[in-house]
TrEMBL record, chain A:
Lineage summary: Bacteria, Pseudomonadati, Pseudomonadota, Candidatus Muproteobacteria
Keyword Membrane: yes
Transmembrane region(s): 6-29, 41-63, 147-173, 194-222, 242-266, 278-301, 321-340, 378-402, 428-453
Protein name: Peptide ABC transporter permease
CDD domains: TM_PBP2
Family matches, as PANTHER family: OLIGOPEPTIDE TRANSPORT SYSTEM PERMEASE PROTEIN AMID (PTHR43386:SF24), OLIGOPEPTIDE TRANSPORT SYSTEM PERMEASE PROTEIN APPC (PTHR43386)
Domain ABC transmembrane type-1 per the UniProt entry, residue ranges: 240-450
UniProtKB/TrEMBL annotation, chain B:
Location, primary (coarse class): membrane
Gene Ontology cellular component list: plasma membrane
Family as reported in the entry's similarity comment: Belongs to the binding-protein-dependent transport system permease family.
Record's keyword annotation contains Transport: yes
Lineage, top ranks: Bacteria, Pseudomonadati, Pseudomonadota, Candidatus Muproteobacteria
Annotated protein name in UniProt: Peptide ABC transporter permease
Single GO BP term: transmembrane transport
Species the sequence originates in: Candidatus Muproteobacteria bacterium RIFCSPHIGHO2_01_FULL_65_16
InterPro entries: BPD_transp_1_N, MetI-like, MetI-like_sf
């Protein structure tokens, strides 16, 4: 085998999450009462656009979630100690093309002056040409024209991909006896149930942007390079997975506890309720940053004293990421638990619960079959609403120093590493900008999507 | 009322014991005192004597929960957990790693934190309520729709961006105020306080305005508002006299609880703007792995949070005559 698969903890959880989402999707598609609110979500143009953007982020994140050790060259069957992901393989040119230090986006010359020896023996102090950025240019003066030409080409490629996607969609949505042209007209005029027009425009924009970024990054550093000369675009892409993991796994790892405790507190009341309430009030009364800080600090000490438990830095960083998710999950868990408890309070007096009890159903069966399905909308709303704040929280925590492992790529680490660069002259603005732009795109899309989900699933808002 | 407050304070005791247990579990169970000593004395080449001395200095040379060697009540009392918990309840936070008294540090650093956090809080609430009222007044128009879009956009931006952007724009580009720093003396302090306060307010505009707007809209749909309009009251009068007063109740829930926590300050603001408050104290403690300070701050934060909850209930009973404290 040319590679040896590695399953990091978060990878496994991501696969489980993916399987759960697909399973739920298949299940919901066959049940009208579950399908109806999703249809409401799909009808909202903003939500459809946000979903396209989220899907793009998710694709990058998923590519980055298949890890393996590559086989070393030499044929003696040993594997590299480094853990790589599919994304690393796809973006291998980006990763390998490092410069000495900073360089601006699309720059052809380095950020700092160096002593350069010319072929004619002259020695001068000047900005040297970059090793990779714009290295194909004979004359750096023709850079603007070169970029424009390549951008035009990439845009064409992006539009081509888009056309293929549109053609596929038209074929898929064609009704009996309809010409493709009339399907297209239906899309363009917004006569279909789903806002195809917005969806396709967003898809087009995403594809063209992606094609441009990919196409140009073969010849230039699209977002510049950082202090050690790494491509900032590559770092931003690698950070996508970290952001997604924090946003999704945090709520999901604690979900079983929140469900069990929340429903049990509301259903049994009495002393069970008292204990659970005491439990979450206690957790809740610690300011969350301090709770995370205290936990991560003790984890650091544990890792320093038990280095043998972690084989590679990737495993170590992954363990810390998972632990961060867990501990942040504890803080967001309390809110969900309280909501579930309140809702169960109301539901347990419902006729169908009384009937189930009269028929002799056990407590467990009542909670699992009658109460759980009726509080799922709260769970869903909480999960999607929490997502964006968790992504933002990661940046803050990494800045404070209790976020993800310093060796792990994340927007928080990028910002943390770049915050002193603003004071440089000339200013190094690109690392910060790239991190903020990528984060903003994800969080904005998540916010818009979450709003649509909340409006569709919250019975109080449905009028 | 007094009986109620006393009872709530008594309820707080088990919660604080629980908080103590959690931090204790994190700092003493996950890592034994020996581990911590090794981290602070350097992992390699550390003698058992040095560890023993480190533990001796801090009183860590006792059993964690149960002292089998002691007699009578000392079986429970002469343990690390009991001694440290009792001290925390008495307000004695011990000494930090560099040997300073944590309580004195807290009292000194509290005021810079308040100097930033209180104006941010007060100005913030005024601004958010004003914006939310504005959007509610123009509800259903383009101004409202775009206002909400702007809010969602603003809340999607990281706080760090507002801080860095604000410092760049105001201090570096326009040279209006110093980038960071702090001065305790009177008017001079204003130029240091202005930027953190503005940045703090701006970073909260998106989420708070949108939330308050939804509170206002919920009230506007109610019967008493229709009655007020039917009486012939003007729209501003309806909004300011009737809707505002009633919408304040849900706003109070989120707002009063954070007032005591203003003393703890904001970690990000203080570290970016170089304010010598409790927030930067905490960050310094985190980076230097000072468990005692972090533990003291966790305890202090929990106490203030509980005080905030009690204040919230009291403010409810003041704002809403239907709520009685019993």
């Amino acid at each position: 085998m040319p590679f040896q698969l590695v399953f990091l903890w978060t990878d496994v959880l991501i696969y489980v999450l993916l399987a759960a989402v697909i399973g739920f999707g298949l299940y919901a598609a066959r049940h009208e009462h579950l399908r109806a609110p999703w249809r409401l979500v799909a009808r909202r143009p903003l939500a459809a656009a946000a979903a396209v953007v989220l899907a793009a982020y998710a694709a990058v994140g998923l590519l980055d979630s298949f890890h393996f050790h590559a086989r070393l060259a030499g044929g003696d069957g040993r594997y590299s100690a480094e853990v790589r992901s599919l994304l690393d393989v796809l973006a291998a040119p980006l990763r390998a093309r490092t410069e000495k230090t900073y360089s601006a986006p699309f720059a052809t010359h380095a950020y700092t002056k160096e002593t350069v020896e010319h072929p004619d023996g002259r020695v001068a102090r000047e900005y040297p040409r970059l090793e990779h950025g714009g290295a194909h240019l004979e004359d750096p003066g023709g850079r603007a024209a070169d970029i424009a030409a390549r951008a035009a080409l990439a845009t064409l490629a992006g539009l081509g991909l888009w056309a293929v996607a549109v053609a596929g969609l038209v074929a898929l949505r064609r009704r009996r006896g309809e010409t493709p042209a009339s399907v297209w007209r239906r899309f363009a005029r917004g006569e279909d149930e789903i806002p195809w027009r917005t969806l396709l425009v967003t898809l087009g924009v995403v594809l063209v942007l992606a094609a441009n970024a990919v196409g140009l990054s073969f010849y230039y550093h699209v977002f510049g390079t950082d202090q050690v000369g790494q491509d900032v675009f590559y770092r931003s892409l690698k950070s996508v997975r970290t952001g997604l993991v924090i946003g999704t796994l945090t709520t999901l790892v604690m979900l079983p506890f929140a469900l069990l405790f929340g429903i049990a507190a509301g259903y049994f009341r009495g002393w069970v309720d008292n204990i659970i309430q005491y439990f979450y009030t206690t957790l809740n009364s610690i300011p969350w940053v301090l709770l995370v800080a205290a936990s991560i600090l003790s984890l650091q000490v544990y890792m320093a004293n038990n280095p043998e438990a972690f084989n590679t830095t990737a495993e170590r960083a992954d363990m810390r990421l998972l632990f961060l998710c867990l501990i942040m999950g504890v803080t967001s868990w309390t809110g969900l638990c309280r909501l579930l408890r309140g809702e169960t309070f109301k539901l347990r007096e419902g006729d169908y619960v009384q009937a189930a009890r009269a028929l002799g159903a056990s407590h467990g069966a009542i909670m699992a079959r009658h109460l759980l399905p009726n509080v799922m909308h709260i769970v869903l709303i909480t999960v999607v609403l929490d997502f964006s704040s968790l992504v933002l929280a990661e940046a803050v925590l990494s800045y404070v120093g209790v976020g993800v492992d310093p060796t792990m790529e994340s927007w928080g680490n990028m910002i943390n590493g770049a915050r002193l660069e603003m004071a440089r002259e000339p200013m190094v603005w690109w690392s910060l900008t790239a991190a903020f732009v990528f984060m903003f795109g994800l969080v904005l899309a998540a916010n818009l999507f979450a709003d649509a989900v909340r409006d569709a699933f919250d019975p109080r808002l449905r009028k | 009322m007094i009986a109620y407050i006393v009872r709530r304070l008594l309820h707080a005791v088990p919660i604080l014991v629980g908080v103590n247990l959690i931090t204790f579990a994190l700092f003493f169970f996950v890592n034994s005192p020996d581990d911590m000593a090794r981290i602070h004395l350097g992992v390699k080449r550390v003698t058992p004597e040095a560890i023993a001395k480190w533990k001796e200095d801090r009183g860590f040379n006792r059993p964690l929960f149960y002292n089998a060697a002691a007699a009578g009540a000392d079986k429970v009392a002469d343990t690390i957990f009991f001694r440290h918990s009792v001290r925390l309840f008495a307000g004695d936070f011990g000494r930090s790693e560099d040997g300073r008294d944590i309580r004195r540090e807290i009292f000194q650093r509290m005021w810079p934190s308040v100097a930033i956090a209180l104006p941010t809080f007060a100005v913030g609430i005024l601004v958010y309520i004003t914006f939310a009222m504005l959007l509610a007044f123009f509800r259903g128009t383009y101004l409202d729709a775009w206002g909400v879009v702007a809010c969602v956009g603003m809340m999607s931006v990281s706080t760090l961006f507002y801080v860095i952007g604000g410092q760049y724009l105001v201090s570096k580009l326009w040279h209006l105020v110093p980038i960071s720093g702090y001065d305790a003396g009177g008017l001079h302090a204003l130029k240091f306080l202005a930027l953190p306060v503005i940045v703090g307010v701006v970073s909260g505009v998106g989420s708070s305005t949108r939330l308050y707007r939804s509170f206002f809209l919920e009230e506007i749909g109610k019967d008493y508002v229709r009655t007020a309009r039917a009486k012939g009251l003007s729209e501003p009068r309806v909004l300011f006299r009737h809707v505002l007063g009633n919408a304040l109740i849900p706003i109070l829930t989120g707002v009063v609880v954070v007032i005591p926590l203003l003393f703890v300050g904001s970690l990000i603001m203080e570290s970016f703007f170089g304010i010598p408050g409790l927030g930067s104290y905490t960050i310094d403690a985190i980076t230097s792995q000072d468990f005692f300070v972090v533990r003291a701050m966790v305890f202090l934060g929990a106490v203030l949070y509980i005080v905030g909850l009690i204040l919230t209930d009291i403010s409810y009973s003041l704002a809403d005559p239907r709520v009685r404290l019993e």
